[in-house]
Design the sequence.
């Protein structure tokens, strides 16, 4: 049963999304969508972590806003969310979420719920240590010390008129970077002219277009290439048995697409992920839509994130994921020229594979609905000839709770069971191939598309046209309003 206060909170959140959406001229507008639990967590976190986290609250809000924005991708799915019994799914969830990971019952995971204590790391690593699984890896660098003079402003698109960016721009020399004008705001509805050219642009956001060079799935059937976006964040850490502990217990490696601004805010958590055998890849500096940026800004976003990771870990990632999946042929060419091959999530039967976890802290979907939608996704995944990759997040306590207590367990307990691996593992890459310093093969030329997809310059199979579109649009706003109506109808 859903208590009335919870319902009001849900509707209030939906309403605020709607209002913000109406006023939005870009993703930033969504920064107003705050949720008590996450903000409380962020501010208490900043007390216990290093210098840059002074802005953790706004950073989290901004990223959550970003997450909110990216939802539009599945706004259609959302409004079509099975209103099928919250009671049934809650029961299933309670049975599946084990008690040993400090995860609340599914029905109590919601916006505004009391925040748990910030987890802390149980294992820390000293400079000079090397990851045992990564042959030839450089030792961990000197302990990271933040100095504001060394870095661009957190969560803002970095300035391009700097020596660093000018130096990184030289990496594009000799590469064919398509002359595609930046989109207005990375959304389909925000730029009708660009939308009309979506196929020529190879624009994923608007029509689901991919290139043969994109990693869009895992080759082997029933294999889930597990990834988490937007961290590193404190809820990944081991204490209180959260994400890293769970992955360790289940012997699962995952791929973390990290935001540069978070890397220098939580360097020890990044180190813990890397040293535990997880893969680290680039997810930009500020988490803004890349197709809306100039070439120089894209280079700055990727370059600063790569530099942050290299400074903290001593290694340089060879893969990236565009925030919101907002990628086109220009962004791809720049990423590849800088030595970072794009990875996106699978478009399966029924649309893009999204855990919808970010909808729950955004207040637009309940945890029970999220879990129910995810079970549908797993059902769809069994129909595919290949494996798959799904959008999932580790920035928020709620999304970590959903992963640890529910989605990962659902896949492991599924009959037949899924095989959970990192994306590099599912592609049969060597661990060293994830980083420039240790690579033995050039990942930009590895042929991994043959077994998975056949999408070069064609729409992603199964993608229902603009269903891949980012949400910051009138369409998505009405979809969210629709969600409110659906929820009302199903709950009252
Ligand atoms: C699963 O596939 C069905 C049929 O195509 C679709 O309606 C549904 O939205 C899909 N769900 C997910 C989560 O992929
Ligand atoms: C990898 O291959 C690409 C495409 O041939 C090339 O541009 C790039 O320089 C190569 N990278 C390395 C590190 O050799
Ligand atoms: C990549 O896979 C495709 C499809 O199987 C194949 O035709 C092509 O020759 C392969 N390319 C390389 C470089 O192995
Ligand atoms: C890929 O698609 C092209 C064009 O539709 C087709 O000719 C080719 O046979 C496909 N290749 C594979 C491996 O499915």
Sequence:
């Amino acid at each position: 049963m859903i208590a009335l206060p919870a319902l009001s909170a849900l509707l209030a959140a939906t309403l605020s999304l709607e209002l913000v959406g109406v006023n939005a001229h870009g993703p930033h507008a969504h920064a107003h969508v705050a949720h008590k639990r996450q903000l409380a967590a962020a501010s208490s976190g900043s007390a216990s972590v290093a210098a840059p986290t002074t802005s953790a609250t706004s950073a989290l809000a901004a990223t959550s806003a970003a997450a909110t924005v990216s939802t539009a991708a599945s706004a259609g799915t959302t409004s079509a969310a099975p209103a099928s019994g919250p009671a049934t799914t809650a029961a299933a969830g309670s049975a599946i979420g084990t008690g040993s990971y400090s995860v609340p019952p599914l029905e109590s995971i919601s916006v505004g719920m009391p925040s748990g204590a910030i987890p802390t790391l149980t294992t820390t690593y000293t400079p000079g240590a090397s990851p045992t699984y990564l042959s030839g890896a450089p030792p961990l660098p000197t302990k990271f010390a933040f100095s504001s003079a060394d870095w661009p402003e957190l969560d803002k698109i970095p300035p391009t008129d700097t020596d660093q960016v000018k130096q990184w721009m030289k990496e594009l020399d000799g590469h064919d970077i398509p002359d595609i004008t930046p989109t207005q705001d990375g959304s389909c509805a925000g730029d009708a002219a660009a939308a009309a050219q979506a196929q020529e642009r190879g624009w994923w956001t608007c029509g689901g277009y991919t290139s043969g060079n994109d990693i869009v799935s895992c080759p082997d059937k029933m294999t889930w290439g597990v990834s988490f976006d937007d961290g590193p964040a404190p809820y990944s850490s081991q204490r209180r048995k959260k994400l890293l502990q769970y992955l360790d217990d289940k012997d699962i490696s995952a791929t973390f697409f990290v935001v540069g601004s978070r890397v220098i805010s939580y360097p020890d958590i990044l180190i813990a992920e890397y040293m535990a055998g997880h893969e680290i890849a680039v997810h930009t500096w500020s988490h803004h839509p890349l197709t809306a940026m100039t070439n120089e800004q894209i280079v700055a976003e990727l370059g600063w994130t790569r530099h942050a990771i290299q400074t903290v870990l001593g290694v340089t990632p060879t893969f990236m994921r565009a925030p919101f999946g907002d990628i086109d042929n220009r962004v791809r060419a720049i990423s590849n020229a800088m030595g970072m091959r794009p990875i996106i999530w699978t478009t399966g039967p029924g649309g893009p594979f999204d855990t919808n976890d970010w909808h729950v802290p955004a207040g637009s979907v309940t945890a029970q609905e999220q879990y129910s939608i995810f079970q549908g996704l797993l059902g769809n995944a069994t129909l595919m000839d290949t494996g798959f990759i799904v959008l999932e997040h580790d920035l928020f306590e709620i999304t970590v709770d959903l992963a640890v207590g529910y989605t990962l367990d659902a896949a492991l307990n599924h009959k037949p069971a899924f095989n959970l691996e990192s994306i590099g593992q599912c592609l049969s890459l060597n661990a060293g191939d994830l980083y420039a310093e240790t690579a033995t093969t050039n990942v930009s030329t590895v042929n991994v598309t043959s077994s998975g997809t056949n999408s070069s310059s064609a729409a992603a199979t199964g993608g229902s046209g603009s269903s891949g579109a980012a949400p910051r649009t009138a369409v998505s706003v009405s979809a969210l309003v629709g969600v409110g109506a659906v929820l009302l109808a199903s709950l009252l």
